[in-house]
Structure formats: C-alpha cells, structure tokens
Design brief:
The chain is an alpha/beta fold and 231 residues long. Helix 5 packs across helix 8 and helix 6 crosses helix 7.
Length: 231
C-alpha cells in the first residue's frame, strides 16, 4: 500500500442542505486511522446551526431542529474546533481524506467566514476517494456515492449519513483503492494531491461536455478542488 494511505485523518460533515454557500453544519467528525483502518482517535460534534433544519435534511442525517437546539453547541465554537482539529492533523503530517472534498471543504470555509473563524487557507494533502476512483476505474457503470463505493471495495458502512460512519468509511475506501491500484497511486501525498486537482478538472470537462450534449447547452460544471473559490 502506498505510504500516504498508512496514516490518515478523515473528515465528514452533515448539514442543513446541499448549497455550500448557504448551508450550515449540523454534525461533524474528524478521526485518525492507522494503516489497517483502525480508529486511533475520533472527535464528534453536534452544532446548533442557528437556523431551522429542513425536513429533507433531517430525513438524511436524523437530526431535528429541536434536538440541535437542545443538545447542540454554538455553531461558532463547533466550527472553530473543527478547523483547529483539521489544522492540527495536517500539521502532524496526516493526509486528509474527504469523500467529494469540494462539498465539505467549501461549506466549512463559508461557515468559518460566517462566524469570524480563521479558515483553512491552504488544505493539502487531501485524498478524495471519489476523484481517485473515477480516475483509476473510469468506465465502471453505476453510482459513485460513498455507499456504492463502500460496497464495491468491500468496506462496511452500516450507518450512512452519520458523519463518523461516513468519514471512517471514506478513509477505508481510500485504503482499499490504494491497495488495489498500488502501482498507479505510488506517489507522495503532495504529488497525489496535485494529480487529483488535474483529474478533477478533467472530470468536470467530461461532465460538462456530456450535460451540454444531452441536456443543457449552457451547462457549466462547478469547478474547484479541494474547495470552490468564493464567488
């Protein structure tokens, strides 16, 4: 297995919606995994986002507005602690695994700025199993969700859309991909980070071309990896 996969930090958010510019954090997890995918340390958060949690979001992650208000901590405190935890993991030399990184990192950036928390200006090295899977197995049919990837790579995900379960599963999927494609992915974490940025751009090009040919001639893919630049 490539060296970058032997020591991973994993990160996931569950939120109030899908728009990274307006959605708020509800739950979060940052965990550290060893080379076998065993959890060495984990941190979990439940925030009161300061807004109502839509029923559609509650249906996904199970947290109601009432529970967040009763049990959640102030959003600013939670955001500050998440940022500090990620900053510490990166400083300690961990590669940071996030499935579909632009969603979580962009939303976290906007939350940090919303609550006057110093954001993560540079996030590297990031490992995004979604981008890597699309690169090393381009023509596999079917969905590329975390649940589908977990099934395909033999990783147990028994509580999908729980931030901790999703974060850990993403890390283990990354390790499974690393083992299966060890030769192709035998790069330093920094070089793999740069490669994923280029792969993501190419994947956006392909998706944009497909959408313009089949659905909307004016479609534009949202670019930016591991985070989308501010508008």
């Amino acid at each position: 297995m490539p060296a970058w996969a032997e020591r991973l930090a994993v990160f996931d958010l569950e939120t109030t919606g899908i728009d990274v510019e307006t959605s708020r954090i509800v739950t979060a997890n940052v965990s550290l995994l060893d080379a076998d995918g065993v959890i060495e340390h984990r941190s979990d958060w439940l925030a009161d986002p300061g807004v109502d949690i839509p029923e559609q979001a509650t249906a996904v992650h199970g947290v109601t507005t009432a529970r967040a208000q009763a049990e959640g901590r102030p959003a600013r405190e939670v955001v500050a602690e998440i940022v500090a935890s990620l900053r510490e993991a990166l400083a300690d030399g961990y590669a940071l695994v996030v499935y579909n990184a632009p969603y979580d990192f962009t939303l976290l950036d906007r939350e940090a700025r919303r609550h006057d928390v110093a954001p993560l200006e540079t996030v590297s090295p990031v490992i995004d199993p979604l981008v890597i899977d699309k690169q090393v197995d381009r023509y596999r049919k079917g969905k590329r969700t975390l649940t589908a990837a977990s099934d395909y790579y033999g990783v147990s995900l028994t509580d999908a859309h729980d931030a901790g379960a999703d974060a850990v599963a993403a890390g283990r999927v990354a390790q499974a991909i690393a083992r299966r494609y060890a030769a192709e992915l035998d790069l330093s974490a920094s070089d793999l980070h740069d490669a994923q940025s280029a792969w993501h751009d190419a994947q956006c090009d392909s998706f944009e071309d497909y959408m313009r040919r089949t659905r909307d001639p004016a479609f534009t893919a949202r670019r930016g990896w591991p985070a989308v630049a501010r508008p």
